[in-house]
Write a structure and sequence with these properties.
3 domains; about 10% strand; about 55% helix
Length: about 450
């Protein structure tokens, strides 16, 4: 399903112009004068162009946007914010025209209702379309990614046709996938035509074979997308498999989120968000403190060392949820249903109210709103020795919520930490304000759907 950008642009322009018309007709205090048509024609033109320009800037017209409801929501909101700013500057500052604030409120509403609704319908339609995938190679990397895709929610968008054996492969080598073998790599062109292949994925074991790469080049001329197993894994599953990356992945990942400009934007957003949230939740603090105090002896707040960016240790603050003697026998993983948690503590954990004091850590700059969850130094030392590249999660500030938190269950083992690292590395590579907003919205969605 492909809808040209021009069609979406026309739909967006029509929706905001309709909002201007409704606002002018029904929400102005005075009846339109004889100059109404000329004035509204100018306003409509400026606002429509502003929305289209803003949509192009934030990626609203990219086909990939239509595959994710959260991405549609975030990019639509970013478009509204940027377009409103552009329209205001052009109309008020450059043209000295008056653009009613009442009307300016109606346009975003019609934009969300019409353009947003159409995009959600397109998203639903895209989910019924399946991309046909052909794997090249049958080693362990292909086996793992094919099984992961088949078991994931994203798997419903793909048809895994089978694999082609590499030049040196046997028909059923050790570790081969359960997918059918459709031939050898020399047959790739014929198989792509016969099976209507849309994407060819090259296994990690075969990706360094230059002769094989030359054979696969014909797929591009057939209109097939060609990716390696690692890229496919990242795009489809939203995680980075640490077993199939090397130091080169970090050196050549082009981590745009780490640049000074992006880092400044993230810090301003974190500071503003933390200050605002601290202000509106402050009335809850005395009530929570009283409940914690009445639950038994011990302090109201719990302070614990955690590892932050560049391995700098800081003290994380939470409302106390465990008994004071919870770690009398040393540090252990916290598990669901942990008997050390008090009755009040269980309620605070389920509602995540125990996390509120971490807003102060964010305000001070020790943490970010979004990032990998900070871990204790004792556990970090253990995990670094058992999980490749675990220490690299400290390239960014830890967060109150994160990509791993919304995509994986509560972790209480080394294997859970490994799976979360896959997700944390994906966030580190893709880090942006847009992704942060997606994670925040999805976190709020989880809290609303599962408040306790």
């Amino acid at each position: 399903m492909h809808v040209p950008k021009s069609v979406w642009a026309v739909a967006d322009a029509a929706s905001v112009c309709l909002g201007n018309y409704i606002g002018y007709q029904f929400f102005r205090l005075q009846f339109p004068t004889s100059t109404w048509v000329a004035d509204m024609t100018l306003a409509n033109a400026v606002v429509a162009v502003a929305y289209i320009a803003a949509g192009l800037a934030v990626g609203l017209y990219e086909t990939e946007t239509l595959r994710h409801r959260s991405r549609i929501a975030v990019r639509s909101l970013l478009t509204i914010g940027l377009a409103t700013a552009i329209a205001y500057v052009v109309l008020h500052t450059l043209m000295y025209e008056i653009y009613s604030r009442r009307i300016a409120i109606i346009s975003p509403l019609t934009f969300i209702a019409i353009s947003g609704g159409l995009r959600l319908l397109a998203c639903r339609s895209l989910r019924n379309l399946k991309s046909r995938i052909l794997f090249v190679g049958c080693g362990d990397s292909i086996r793992r990614v094919s099984e992961a895709v088949a078991e994931s929610e994203a798997g419903r968008n793909y048809v895994l046709l089978g694999y082609l054996a590499g030049p040196e492969s046997e028909s059923n080598p050790p570790g081969a996938t359960d997918l059918p073998c459709l031939g050898v790599v020399e047959d790739v062109q014929a198989v792509c035509l016969a099976e209507d292949v849309q994407e060819v994925v090259i296994g990690a074991e075969e990706s360094s074979d230059t002769e094989l790469s030359q054979l696969i080049m014909c797929c591009l001329r057939l209109g097939c997308r060609v990716t390696n197993q690692q890229t496919f894994h990242e795009r489809v599953l939203g995680e980075v498999p640490v077993d199939y990356i090397s130091a080169d992945w970090f050196l050549f990942a082009d981590l745009e989120g780490h640049r000074a400009g992006r880092a400044t934007i993230k810090r301003v957003f974190d500071f503003s968000f933390a200050a605002f949230t601290l202000l509106i939740t402050l009335p809850l603090w005395p009530l929570i403190a009283l409940a914690v105090k009445l639950s038994g002896r011990g302090p109201v707040f719990y302070s614990q060392e955690r590892v932050g960016r560049h391995n700098r240790v800081f003290r994380l603050i939470k409302f106390r949820t465990m008994r004071p003697d919870a770690e009398a026998d040393g540090h252990v993983w916290s598990t669901p249903g942990d008997p050390r948690v008090t009755g009040v503590g269980r309620f605070l954990r389920r509602t995540h109210l125990d996390e509120l004091p971490q807003l102060w850590n964010i305000f001070l700059g020790d943490m970010s709103i979004v990032g990998p969850r900070p871990e204790r130094p004792e556990f970090v030392q253990e995990l670094i020795t058992e999980i490749p590249y675990y220490d690299e999660r400290h390239l960014v500030k830890p967060g109150l919520t994160g990509w791993a938190q919304i995509n994986y269950r509560y972790g209480c083992s080394v294997e859970d930490a490994r799976r979360k690292l896959h997700l944390d590395l994906y966030y580190i590579k893709q880090m942006s304000l847009e992704l942060d907003l997606v994670i925040i919205f999805r976190t709020l969605g989880i809290l609303i759907r599962h408040p306790i």
